[in-house]
Amino acid sequence: HVQLVESGGGSVQAGGSLRLSCAASGYSYCMGWFRQAPGKEREGVAAIEGSGDKTYARSVSGRFTISRDFGKNTLYLQLNNLKPEDTAVYFCAPIHCGTWTSLTKLWGQGTQVTVS
């Protein structure tokens, strides 16, 4: 199974920015970023295909940007204009293309983003 290590989270004020990274031990054509806030279910926020096509949840569209470095097997998420409602633990995962369904049941530890 692919191993996932997320990093880059932190505490920022509203309007601030962060860049999250996800190091994956293997390649997957489609990858996604997810987040889970306290008391809420995990939700998909951004996805990218090997073709470069990107999909964003409506709540983050225009503020978040997903990208990947194939050579480094690393996925990124640039978070701009952060809002308190973006506070959550952020995870990455390989996904079924065109869906928010993870291909793995073994999630990484995630990275905490806190916006005040």
Number of helices: 0
Listing every helix as H and every strand as E from the N terminus to the C terminus, the arrangement reads EEEEEEEEEE
What structural class is derived from the secondary structure elements? mainly beta
Task: Report how far apart the termini are.
Answer: 36 Å
The residue ranges in which pLDDT falls below 50 over 5 or more consecutive positions are none
Largest sheet: 6 strands, mixed
Strand order of the largest sheet: 2-10-9-4-5-6
Proportion of helical residues: under 10%
Global shape? globular
The value of Rg in angstroms is 13 Å
Descriptive notes:
The protein has strands spanning 4-7, 10-12, 18-24, 31-36, 43-48, 54-56, 64-69, 74-79, 88-94, 111-115. With 116 residues, the protein is an all-beta fold. The strands form two sheets. The chain has a six-stranded mixed beta sheet, with no helix packed on it. A hairpin with a 5-residue loop joins strand 5 and strand 6 (54-56). The relative contact order is 0.33.
Label this structure with key terms.
116 residues; single chain; globular; 4-stranded antiparallel sheet
Give the topology, please.
Blueprint: E1 4-7, E2 10-12, E3 18-24, E4 31-36, E5 43-48, E6 54-56, E7 64-69, E8 74-79, E9 88-94, E10 111-115
Parallel strand pairs: 2-10
Antiparallel strand pairs: 1-3, 3-8, 4-5, 4-9, 5-6, 7-8, 9-10
Summarize the structure.
By secondary structure, the protein is mainly beta. 0% of the residues lie in helices and 46% in strands.
